[in-house]
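Lab meeting, item 3. Inverse folding demo.
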């Protein structure tokens, strides 16, 4: 499948453009070198339609169809860095909201096994051919409602949600391992906070990190 895409890129999708994105992320406070190296390698331009590929390395969210967006590089990097800063490196990571698959692919380069749930079935063909083109074989995908998580293969060391519910979904909390970490945006379309939750021996420790803007987490599948 890889002949479908120019993985290295050219012009606005070239290595130089990727390096400039990484420099901007450094300037914005992203410090983890392993993460920055992966971001410099991962061809973000194959995760959007070709007509938009020249904008793939700008610090903006990009439309991917069905009123959904590929999140801006900074938030993808920030959430991934939070997982890399945990005292123990997560092994099994659940992602809710596969979308373009860019965040999934980044996670797959850094963690052992990624489970990803998406409610829009038509995203899944495109994303799985992107994963094969990149040689990623540690991703399991499911078409389903992320509010329910993925109970059959739970528990997870970490859960990352890339669309915002108004309240923290209870089912996701119960699928975290002890000491596991969940990162998710919580709020409505006017105001959202990125929240970090750690499962402790006596409950859940919750902390708001910063204001963010994500598309809403929606009920049901299409
Ligand atoms: N991580 C994605 C972000 C896509 S936007 C990327 O990097 O491209 C958010 C995604 O969450 C969309 O694909 C949307 O369809 C999906 N989503 C929204 N509600 C969902 C739900 N309840 N279950 C699973 N996926 C959901």
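The presenter then showed the designed sequence:
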């Amino acid at each position: 499948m890889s002949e479908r895409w120019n993985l290295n890129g050219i012009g606005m999708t070239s290595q130089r453009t990727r390096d400039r994105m990484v420099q901007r992320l450094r300037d914005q406070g992203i410090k983890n070198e392993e993460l920055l190296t992966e971001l410099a390698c991962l061809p973000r331009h194959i995760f959007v339609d070709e007509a938009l590929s020249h904008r793939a390395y700008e610090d903006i969210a990009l439309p991917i169809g069905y009123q959904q967006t590929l999140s801006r590089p900074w938030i993808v990097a920030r959430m991934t860095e939070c997982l890399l800063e945990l005292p123990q490196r997560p092994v099994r990571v659940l992602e809710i909201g596969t979308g373009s698959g860019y965040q999934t692919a980044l996670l797959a380069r850094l963690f052992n096994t990624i489970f990803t749930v998406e409610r829009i079935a038509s995203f899944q063909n495109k994303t799985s051919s992107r994963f094969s083109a990149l040689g990623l074989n540690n991703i399991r995908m499911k078409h389903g409602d992320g509010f329910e998580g993925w109970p059959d293969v739970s528990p997870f060391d970490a859960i990352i949600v890339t669309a915002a519910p108004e309240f923290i979904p209870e089912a996701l909390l119960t699928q975290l391992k002890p000491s596991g970490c969940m990162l998710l945006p919580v709020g409505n379309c006017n105001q959202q906070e990125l929240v970090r939750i750690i499962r402790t021996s006596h409950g859940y420790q919750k902390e708001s990190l910063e204001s963010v803007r994500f598309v809403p987490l929606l009920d049901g599948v299409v």
